[in-house]
Amino acid sequence: MSRIISAALDDLNAEQRAAVEHGLEPLLVIAGAGSGKTKTLSCRVAHLVAQGADPSRILLLTFSRRAASEMIARIGNVMAGDVRIPWAGTFHAIGARLLRELAPVIGIDPEFTIHDRSDSADLMGMVRQELGVATGAKRFPMKGTCLAIYSRVVNADESVADALAAAFPWCREWEAELKRLFAAYVEAKQKQNVLDYDDLLWLWAEAMNEPALAREVGARFDHVLVDEYQDTNKLQARILLAMKPDGQGVTVVGDDAQSIYSFRAADVRNILEFPKAYARETRLVTLEQNYRSTVPILEASNAVIDLAQERFTKNLRTTRSGGGAPKLVSVRDEVAQASYVAECVLEARERGVALTQQAVLFRAADFSAPVELELAKRDIPFVKFGGLKFLEAAHVKDFLAILRWAQNGGDRIAGFRTLQLVPGVGPAKAARILDAMDETGAYGVVRNTAPPAGAGEAWDTLKGMLDDLRGATWPGDLELAARWYGPLMNERYEDARVRTGDVEQLQRIGSTFGSRTSFLTELTLDPPNSTSDESGPAHKDDDYLILSTIHSAKGQEWKNVFVLNVVDGCMPSDLGAGSTAELEEERRLLYVAMTRAKDELHLITPQRFYHTQQGKGGDKHVYAIRSRFVPTNILPKFEQMAWAPGEGVDGVQDRGPLPKIDLAARARGRFS
Ligand code: ATP
Ligand code: MG
């Protein structure tokens, strides 16, 4: 083993080291936040490679593409050189890649395109309309809900009836209609040669039901390692077991106290039942030392999670002494909350804490709006993760739809979108054009259709572009699509200039991928949060604050962390306060948020917040009380304070003593 590796291993504690050096029997590392699970996993990969394992025979499954590249970078650091781990990524991305390879033997076309959740919901809506399911029924679930039910059925490996009973009891009356709808949805996807996110896991899992295929795929990898295993679902556990029935070379790490994805059918039982799942006996390693947070932060986090009804991992200890108690800050409203965050952030920057070392976390993406406004006002740069993604912007979707349709003429959602970019073509017209579609694909259907009224030259240029795209090589396609779309975008959007910048950015991102297929696949599966997420900030030394949903903050850490809206109705969200299980998941979310902090933690409780009813109207201000997850008996773990704008925070805005005035005397004087 190289000296460099052994030096890196010297940093590890005995348990971490045991996990790193463990042999081939199935290995489960289960431990709390910040105990070095991800670090241990990276060191294990480095150790394996140093001992001669072939990096191309290692499968590394992570929660996001970013997490995969961070881990590969860590592995490179330990080995003091670049390491390529070609099979590293999310379950979905790896699934897409394997399915393209396996396509000829599993009866699918390898040229499939992938629908993101909003495309899938659109297709669900389209199918419902064509089928006439429950037409006019006002209470029938919306297309997004239909998709969520379908997704639950697939990912939890359940019947429609069970999924409805477990998670959508208010939709139970529609079981028969939903079954018909789902059957037609599946048929539509197959006809169009598109896969949705759920297909990527389901097809992979089904393929692995065939022993010969499972053996073939399993034999490609000597090691399979999974981070954040607590957030995998039934299909993912099935895939793992089928590839490696004896568990040889399988390592999973996770923390049951951080399981926060059950709304996507993640099942914490996967990690708890892992030791029983495999033919060979599992080695269990628990880690008890936290290296991330100071004592007071860890104690407060432990106090919050101690109130959970069920938990497997033990409390952690830390040696990171010093630092004050986490702050529990009461402010008047969300506007005051925003100024508090801005002032603290600036004050910390004065002290030398870079903005990228500070994060603002929130339960729901729209909670950050007032903070975003405040940051913009004060010229504090930030990047937001989670919530509305860059790819959800209309112009970005347009641009990708053009490429997707060129790739797969059968992709109706992509065609529908592209056609409607042409002036004079609305939904009905676009649908009629698509109905005439035959095997000549996108180009054929456009060529054979008379130019719609009002289309002008956009129709001819569309024809030309689709023709050119047939012969284009990557990344030339990007240029062709941008050239056609540019003028249409200028007419469509008032802020076309900003959007043009985004399209140019997409072209730059695209040119870093090897092919149109890999670009479209990767971008659809793990969309960048903003253009800067994918390509890094414009300048290397740019400093920016992190805004993130708690879900997207998984696995990460920052010196200073601010958690917004720690009040009932927001945390727990009133959407999640239904069943005990949902409530427990909300508690774990707060725990995940708190344990992201290394040095400073602020939980903020506005006394009122703006309550949006998700499309139901009736938005209003409501008065709020401190989250029930911070009950009175654990308050001593916090420093409680009230803050109002103008007060400043320590060190930043010393405005001196306020002038003394005697209003009582003035009131008396008014009439004397
Ligand atoms: P989470 O549950 O939040 O994903 P984790 O268990 O994966 O956390 P890591 O992110 O791997 O924890 O590690 C947390 C921090 O502790 C990192 O900064 C890491 O470098 C540091 N760390 C882990 N182990 C050690 C160690 N033995 N010595 C020093 N620092 C360590
Ligand atoms: Mg981790």
Automatic annotation (TrEMBL):
<dbReference type="GO" id="GO:0016787">
    <property type="term" value="F:hydrolase activity"/>
</dbReference>
<keyword id="KW-0378">Hydrolase</keyword>
<comment type="similarity">
    <text>Belongs to the helicase family. UvrD subfamily.</text>
</comment>
<dbReference type="Pfam" id="PF13361">
    <property type="entry name" value="UvrD_C"/>
</dbReference>
<protein>
    <recommendedName>
        <fullName>DNA 3'-5' helicase</fullName>
        <ecNumber>5.6.2.4</ecNumber>
    </recommendedName>
</protein>
<keyword id="KW-0347">Helicase</keyword>
<feature type="domain" description="UvrD-like helicase ATP-binding">
    <location>
        <begin position="10"/>
        <end position="294"/>
    </location>
</feature>
<dbReference type="InterPro" id="IPR027417">
    <property type="entry name" value="P-loop_NTPase"/>
</dbReference>
<dbReference type="InterPro" id="IPR014017">
    <property type="entry name" value="DNA_helicase_UvrD-like_C"/>
</dbReference>
<keyword id="KW-0547">Nucleotide-binding</keyword>
<dbReference type="GO" id="GO:0043138">
    <property type="term" value="F:3'-5' DNA helicase activity"/>
</dbReference>
<dbReference type="Pfam" id="PF00580">
    <property type="entry name" value="UvrD-helicase"/>
</dbReference>
<dbReference type="GO" id="GO:0000725">
    <property type="term" value="P:recombinational repair"/>
</dbReference>
<keyword id="KW-0067">ATP-binding</keyword>
<dbReference type="GO" id="GO:0005524">
    <property type="term" value="F:ATP binding"/>
</dbReference>
<dbReference type="InterPro" id="IPR013986">
    <property type="entry name" value="DExx_box_DNA_helicase_dom_sf"/>
</dbReference>
<dbReference type="InterPro" id="IPR000212">
    <property type="entry name" value="DNA_helicase_UvrD/REP"/>
</dbReference>
<dbReference type="GO" id="GO:0005829">
    <property type="term" value="C:cytosol"/>
</dbReference>
<dbReference type="InterPro" id="IPR014016">
    <property type="entry name" value="UvrD-like_ATP-bd"/>
</dbReference>
<keyword id="KW-0413">Isomerase</keyword>
<feature type="domain" description="UvrD-like helicase C-terminal">
    <location>
        <begin position="295"/>
        <end position="555"/>
    </location>
</feature>
<feature type="binding site">
    <location>
        <begin position="31"/>
        <end position="38"/>
    </location>
    <ligand>
        <name>ATP</name>
    </ligand>
</feature>
<dbReference type="GO" id="GO:0003677">
    <property type="term" value="F:DNA binding"/>
</dbReference>
